[in-house]
């Protein structure tokens, strides 16, 4: 079965031209958060089941109160109902919610179940010795390839041959990190036509290799950037002045995000030492002009790096840095997958890629989360600045 891939070119062209200066948001912020939570938990089931309606409503209310234990209980109930009703949409919704709520392996069980392809032998966790495994994402954004990359080491060791279909921009990183992996490009062939014994999505791998969160941490292996390119970019940036080198990004095409306004970055940029390297896609000129006023001579925009068309060079840029401070975006996930010390600033939304509470991320040991917490962004920005200062303390021209 062919999996539909979004029109990547049109999305990338739109992103390249976008002026992503965040706009200030007034008192509607909280209402926007609540509206997003209600939308997320809108009943996806095709079944007229009162229990589904009740748990959906109570879960949305729990998220609104930030009562994570209650939200987890309702998500667990919804997952069980989805299985009983044979409703993949409800199963997936429950699994995705549980992933944010720290429910461990149950989240992977549900998401993997919802992604199974009828008529194709799904790997059931049995011995892979002498067998050929094909792995694909099936659905989801680019972050899937970054969050689950560490799973491939154990898979390669267990299987006779492992083939992974990846987003084309990430193929060099995957091939460099796992030379024994058979890396294929998405869209260049039918997965079903693969000469494989069993198939899996990334969540199926997580179901069998990550029974709990500590296990998710244990086998972490960073993606391997082009080390020559990393050294060349680092030298180039340090030629502009002493480090540390701090990457930052501030804008998003996702209009549902509550982002710090440009002026919120003033104190952070003014108080931190070193050079600030833009990791932002889109039309960065207007924003950089403002940042330059607050950190004169310390802002670097490298036009040779275009993450939208050359993710490998973008990875080398991130790996050349001493720290990253950013909103939630692809760069935050890539920095985590590269094991670069990173501070991610999160609004109060119920975000797919990040835990709903806590400051750590099991799949990215080098990432720390700073949450807006219902306050003005100034407080979170101050906390983020402190975290970055702790990371770069004592870092100058070297590491």
From TrEMBL:
<protein>
    <recommendedName>
        <fullName>Glycosyltransferase</fullName>
    </recommendedName>
</protein>
């Amino acid at each position: 079965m062919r999996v539909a891939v979004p029109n990547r070119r049109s999305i990338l062209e739109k992103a390249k031209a976008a002026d992503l200066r965040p706009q200030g948001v007034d008192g509607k912020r909280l209402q926007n958060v609540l509206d997003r939570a209600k939308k997320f938990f809108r009943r996806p089931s095709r079944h007229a089941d009162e229990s589904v309606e009740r748990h959906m409503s109570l879960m949305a209310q729990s998220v609104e109160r930030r009562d994570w234990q209650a939200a987890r209980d309702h998500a667990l109930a919804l997952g069980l109902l989805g299985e009983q009703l044979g409703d993949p949409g409800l199963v997936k919704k429950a699994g995705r919610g549980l992933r944010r709520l720290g429910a461990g392996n149950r989240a992977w069980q549900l998401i993997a179940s919802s992604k199974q392809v009828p008529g194709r032998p799904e790997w059931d966790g049995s011995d892979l010795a002498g067998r050929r495994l094909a792995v694909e994402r099936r659905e989801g954004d680019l972050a899937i390839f970054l969050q689950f990359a560490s799973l491939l080491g154990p898979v390669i060791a267990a299987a006779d041959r492992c083939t992974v279909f990846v987003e084309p921009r990430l193929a060099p990183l995957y091939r460099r990190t796992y030379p024994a992996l058979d890396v294929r490009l998405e869209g260049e062939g039918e997965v079903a036509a693969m000469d494989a014994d069993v198939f899996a999505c990334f969540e199926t791998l997580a179901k069998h290799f990550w029974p709990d969160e500590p296990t998710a941490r244990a086998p972490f292996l960073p993606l391997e950037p082009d080390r020559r390119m990393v050294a060349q970019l680092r030298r180039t940036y340090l030629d502009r002045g002493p480090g540390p080198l701090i990457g930052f990004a501030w804008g998003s095409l996702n209009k549902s995000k509550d982002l710090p306004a440009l002026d919120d970055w003033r104190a952070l940029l003014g108080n931190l030492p070193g050079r600030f390297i833009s990791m932002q896609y889109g039309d960065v000129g207007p924003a950089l002009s403002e940042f330059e006023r607050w950190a004169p001579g310390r802002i670097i925009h490298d036009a040779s790096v275009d993450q939208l068309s050359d993710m490998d060079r973008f990875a080398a840029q991130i790996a050349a840095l001493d720290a990253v401070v950013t909103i939630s975006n692809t760069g935050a996930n890539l920095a985590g997958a590269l094991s670069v010390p990173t501070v991610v600033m999160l609004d109060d939304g119920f975000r797919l890629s990040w835990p709903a509470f806590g400051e750590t991320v099991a799949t990215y040991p080098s990432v720390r989360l700073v949450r807006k917490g219902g306050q003005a962004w100034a407080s979170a920005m101050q906390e983020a600045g402190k975290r970055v200062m702790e990371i770069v303390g004592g870092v100058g021209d070297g590491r």
